[in-house]
């Protein structure tokens, strides 16, 4: 399998031009993120990803995690790599210095998280969930819980898991039955959770489970849920580990991909009940959990980007060495590497253009969250938060769909060998396929975008985004047409908001439209800077020309499809009126 090399030049370009990283350093709390520090962090992360994490990708896929005598064992090398990750301080990069973090921007952390995930998505899933747990505990936890757990979570010494789904509930969170019974200043939790990523493992001496359970005497539905912190091992007042808590992994799921990531069925309270502590207020668990879920959804969208990058590098390298046929463009006799064939070049450019659009959107959204939490002006913070809330479901859904598509194109480039496991191309597709499903299926993301983020404020947040986009058109007809389509669709969906079934039938193509147009907008910004540098003879000429070529391809092959989504967005009547019995 091809090695992974972090595309540092592309990453830094997106950070500087789209996320506007130099501006972030002027915000309160980000003074440490100077250019030299950013470069050093990126280079160190790239080395760690390629030398420590990437070699685990195939090992993890082949060995998988296993359940032995009630304990989950991870594949060879995973434990050592995670210890090196914690010892290197990588988990603390984006957390505030006040809680033991390094105080660097989330946008920079998105960059290095892309590296871990591209190197081995299954390995990187473990630290991913800890980020949300830190944010939930910092925002909603008691002083005592913060004293005992926050430092260990920030460092990564104690990773976290997120426990929502139950066998009878699925995505219907309100149908949860796991119950919490008050026991003095703590609770006893009893119930079962499924699909729990890294619910148990051997990478650390403790695991902090963040668990949704039904509060005593709480109302039905989601309104009766509370969030609880349940450690694998109880923690004494001095921070030392105590007795094993009443919880266990019942089984591991046998999955299509991410074999090394243990997806657990977790049992809480087989005996007296798992001891847990309330995070936040009773019956307000969903508010606390959304702190974790929004973080996780951004990170999962980033997974789509990362797995696409890894699949692209693998396919690109294959096209350079696989010799077959004489392309129509050849000027000399003989056979050539397949990258010279026009259709192979088209597929490679399709992969690259989508990746660069995804990277721009992920980094831009992460930087928007940075501004929402660190801008000096309160009103500015609110505007940035509104933009971030709008884009998070788009990042999660659009980027993961693109990740699957790019991984599939990678298999196609390999031809018949792509369907053979030994080439490694298939693993990227298998691993990518989970991302549109977990942390809220992409249909749920589309419903969230339409119902909570667009129709609730009658399109105000989208309108503000459209105004920003129009300011950067600069004669780009494809972008202007795409923005027109987004504006048309938004107005129609807002005007027909009372017809919920009709508008929700078009929610997924609407999210796709927003992703396509937002990606085109941000690539246009990059293209404008590349053009400026070329005209000024500034920087790497080949790099800048490649940016222009990629943006042009995206305009002609991806952005050009935007207007064609309008009939699907407005076609809810046909969807609802179809007789399913006729299928």
Describe the structure.
By secondary structure, the chain is of the alpha+beta class. Among the domains are: 55-88 and 120-283, Butyryl-CoA Dehydrogenase, subunit A, domain 2; 441-572, no CATH class. It has 20 helices and 12 strands. The strands form 3 sheets. Strands 3, 4, 5, 6, 7, 10, 11 and 12 form an 8-stranded mixed sheet that branches. The protein has a two-stranded antiparallel sheet with strand order 1-2. It has a two-stranded antiparallel ribbon with strand order 8-9. Helix 11 (378-414) runs antiparallel to helix 13 and helix 17 (507-535) packs antiparallel against helix 18 (541-557). The radius of gyration is 24 Å and the shape is globular. The two termini are 43 Å apart.
Short description:
The protein is of the alpha+beta class.
Keywords:
single chain, 583 residues, alpha+beta, Butyryl-CoA Dehydrogenase, subunit A, domain 2, two-stranded antiparallel sheet, 20 helices, 55% helix, 11% strand, globular
**Percent helix among the residues?**
40-55%
The rounded Rg comes to 24 Å
E-strand count: 12
Which regions are unreliable across 5 or more consecutive residues at pLDDT < 50? none
* Second CATH tier, the architecture of the domain at 55-88 and 120-283: Beta Barrel
Shape: globular
Largest sheet: 8 strands, mixed
Strand content: 5-15%
> What name does the CATH topology of the domain at 55-88 and 120-283 carry?
Butyryl-CoA Dehydrogenase, subunit A, domain 2
Count of alpha and pi helical runs? 20
Q: Structural class given helices, strands, pairing? A: alpha+beta
Termini gap: 43 Å
Q: Provide the CATH top-level class of the domain at 55-88 and 120-283.
A: Mainly Beta
What is the residue-averaged pLDDT? Answer: 95
């Amino acid at each position: 399998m091809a090695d992974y090399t972090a595309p540092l030049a592309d990453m830094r370009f997106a950070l500087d031009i789209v996320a506007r990283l130099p501006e972030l350093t002027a915000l309160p709390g980000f003074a440490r993120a100077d250019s030299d520090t950013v470069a050093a962090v990126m280079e160190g992360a790239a080395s760690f990803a390629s030398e420590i994490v990437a070699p685990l990708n195939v090992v993890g896929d082949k060995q998988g995690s296993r359940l032995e005598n009630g304990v989950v064992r991870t594949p060879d090398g995973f434990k050592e790599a995670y210890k090196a990750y914690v010892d290197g301080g990588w988990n603390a990069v984006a957390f505030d210095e006040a809680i033991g973090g390094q105080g660097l921007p989330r946008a920079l952390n998105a960059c290095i998280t892309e590296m871990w995930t591209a190197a081995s998505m299954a390995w990187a899933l473990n630290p991913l969930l800890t980020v949300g747990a830190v944010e939930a505990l910092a925002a909603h936890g008691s002083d005592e819980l913060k004293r005992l757990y926050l430092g260990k979570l920030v460092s990564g010494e104690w990773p976290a898991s997120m426990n929502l789904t139950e066998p009878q509930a699925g995505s219907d969170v309100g149908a949860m039955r796991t119950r919490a019974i008050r026991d003095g200043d703590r609770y006893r939790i009893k119930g079962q959770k499924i699909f729990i990523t890294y619910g148990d493992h051997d990478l650390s001496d403790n695991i902090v489970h963040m668990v949704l359970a039904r509060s005593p005497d709480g109302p039905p539905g989601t309104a009766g849920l509370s969030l609880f912190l349940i450690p694998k091992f109880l923690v004494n007042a001095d921070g030392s580990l105590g007795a094993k808590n009443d919880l266990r992994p019942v089984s591991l799921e046998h999955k299509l991909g991410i074999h090394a990531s243990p997806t657990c069925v977790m049992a809480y309270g087989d005996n007296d009940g798992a001891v847990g502590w309330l995070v936040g207020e009773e019956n307000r668990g969903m508010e606390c959990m959304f702190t974790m879920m929004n973080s996780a959804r951004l990170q999962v969208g980033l997974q789509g980007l990362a797995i696409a990058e890894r699949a692209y590098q693998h396919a690109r390298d294959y096209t350079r060495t696989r010799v077959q046929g004489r392309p129509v463009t050849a000027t000399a006799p003989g056979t050539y590497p397949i990258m010279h064939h026009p259709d192979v070049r088209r597929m490679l450019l399709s992969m690259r253009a989508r990746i660069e659009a995804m990277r721009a959107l992920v980094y831009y959204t992460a930087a928007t969250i940075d501004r929402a939490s660190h801008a000096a002006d309160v009103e500015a913070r609110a505007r940035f938060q509104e933009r971030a809330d709008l884009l998070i479901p788009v990042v999660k859904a659009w980027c993961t769909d693109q990740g699957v598509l790019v991984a599939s194109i990678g298999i196609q480039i390999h031809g018949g060998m792509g369907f053979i496991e030994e080439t490694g191309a298939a693993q990227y597709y298998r691993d990518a396929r989970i991302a549109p499903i977990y942390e809220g299926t992409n249909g749920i993301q589309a419903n969230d975008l339409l119902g909570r983020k667009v129709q609730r404020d009658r399109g105000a947040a989208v309108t503000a985004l459209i105004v920003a986009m129009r300011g950067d058109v600069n004669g780009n007809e494809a972008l202007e047409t795409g923005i027109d389509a987004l504006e048309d669709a938004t107005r129609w969906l807002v005007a027909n908001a009372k017809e919920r079934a009709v508008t929700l039938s078009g929610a997924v193509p609407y999210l796709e439209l927003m992703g396509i147009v937002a990606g085109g907008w941000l690539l246009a910004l990059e293209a404008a800077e590349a053009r400026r540098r070329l005209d000024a003879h500034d920087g790497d000429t080949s790099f800048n020309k490649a940016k222009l070529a990629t943006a042009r391809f995206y305009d002609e092959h991806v952005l050009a499809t935007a207007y064609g989504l309008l009939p699907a967005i407005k076609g809810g009547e046909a969807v609802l009126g179809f007789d399913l019995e006729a299928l």
